[in-house]
Amino acid sequence: MAGRYWRHNRRARASVAIGALLLALSAAFLLLAPQLGGGAAVTIGTASLITAALSTVSLGNGLVQFLAWWHRRATPPPAPTSADIGTAKDILAGLVAQQWRDETVLRSLCDPEPMPLPWRSTEHRELADHPEIIARGTVAFPGLGVHIEDMARNFRALRSRRLVILGGPGTGKTTLAVQLVLELLRTRQPEEHVPVLLSAARWDDRLHPRIQDWLAESVAMDYPALRAEGLGPAIPETLVARGEVLPVIDGLDELPDHARAAMLAALNRSMCENDQLILTCRTEQFAESVHDIGDVLTAAAVIEPQPMTAAAASEYLRACLPPVPHPAWPRVLGELRAGAVPALSEVTSTSLGLWLVRATYIAPRADPAPLLALGRGTAADLHDHLCDQLIPALVSARPPAEGPAQPFRPQHMWRADEVGRWLAYLSRQLTIGKEDSRDVAWWHLARHTPSRGVRIGAGVASGAVVGVAFAVLAGSPLVGALIGVPVAGVVMFVTGSWFSESPGHADFQVRGRLSELLRVLRDGLLVGALGALVGWLMASPVFGLRVGLEAAWQIGLLSGIGFVVVLSLIRWVEHPTTEATARSPRSTWQADRNLTVIRIVSGLVVGLMGGAIALKAQLSPSVAIVGGLLLGLLFGLLLGSHHAWLAYKLTIPRLASRGRLPLRAMGFLEDAHRLGLLRTEGPYYQFRHIELQQHLARIPPQSKEPKHPSPLP
Asked: 416-448+650-698 has which CATH code?
């Protein structure tokens, strides 16, 4: 059992390996110090002391992780109470509602009113289960003009409350799913499930064969408030296991054929009788998956949109116009109602087409005359024209806010051609991978950009700074080399995991977490005792009893406090509070940056302690203080589990130098969201429409970009 733990816990293995390396380096310093003599000997001896403390912290980290795993294995956690479950459901419902209300405003889904798309039960009987299994009596959704309140009422009337929303590209499947989520939340009773909207592209059935496992992991990541100590242990997992979460899975069609069929089979295989579900997919892809697995989605009603009539589209566009529109609009709307512009009629028969017309011609108050000429051509040409005009139209219609920041206006001025080029790069990154995906995560920019060069550069730079500093302070180039070279190697080794780490966040709440704090102090005492043993075994055989006792005291104190201040404190603060909001891309970026600052401050505190010990060993004040601060800074930066912000900062300048993204990449992504080009789904950005992503991906890259860039997941 213990062997399996060490095989599967990569961080624990790395911690032990680094600790062993530093311990060997400390022993080498200790043996070398008497041979140098003078100030260099004192410097090397102090470096041996600090390195021994660092090695003890690293070894102790692996040991403490193993002991914690062993304790968790032997002591099962208490089950949450019914009160915990009810509170958690209310918190989750509030976070989901807040998240998607903001998205509704950004997407103009209800301005001036929801798009009048009619929905009804599918006529493809081979795609739906037996009617008597779906609903008691007649199958639900029999009408055409179904309002969202009626839609929610019909959904609740289904026996298993399972619904599949089908349709062609841009027919409003996601729009309906968002509106249905908000309506179910608005009218939710305490005993009802909490709907949570997730992208199908995030589910890998090979990693999570059961929907419950994937759903629990996604809820825990997207809504960290559910990890609050006061809610009880494993709340996301418990909510999902008890069937208290209604997954709304959007975009099944965005997966490859084999993955789509596998996911549909996994849904049937893993759902119990009381499990509810809402799923969106294109009709053609859903039919192919049903054919591949030889079965439909069990007990699910299946609905499809009916094409919007030209008269309904014309009336909706008229309602979106200002009281005094451009003089060409009456003619455009009249010919649309009369059927004289067939391409425009076809494009506006879907919600995507209506939104494109509104965003490119109504919002910027542009002359709609081109709609007449292109409306008599082909729908494909008109669609491409609208996509080409979309970015310039949105940039011009939504200038940066003056004065205080506004939630639905960009904060920076961007040129339309730059926005198009950067979004085209991201869209190509998403489409050249082995599997299609829509999730753009800021930490993935570092994960899927080659990092070997920057790791070598960071290692060499760190080793050079530390080596030169010690060489100058000690007056010996040999001392600088002996310290700088190992520092460079450690930095190159440790930073390898930075580019694949996910972001973290911190919480300093003490109330209700005193037992955790006591465990932190207990672990610090354990590591301090280990450090004292290391110091005694290293020094006493060579220098005698007195020096061995002094080394034991110094290394034990430094390693114990260093472990508590840097490692254990970081672990202790990585907990959300009940006041936390739904995790957004910007909030995760800021939270991981704050963790970096905390680690830096903690490392500097440990460095000052090391400097104080060096001063007591009669080392010069400059060597003691500067050397301690430098090593402490590196100590704080390198240790810990979340370095996504640092990896992002090392990656963006390289992308900006090649014209792929701006230096203010997060500000750009946030403004693209405010412009309505991107949407957020938990901590991820996504293109608002897959058709827009595919259109941008077809734009050839400029000369500053490589022909075959590495993909984002």
From this structure: 1.10.10
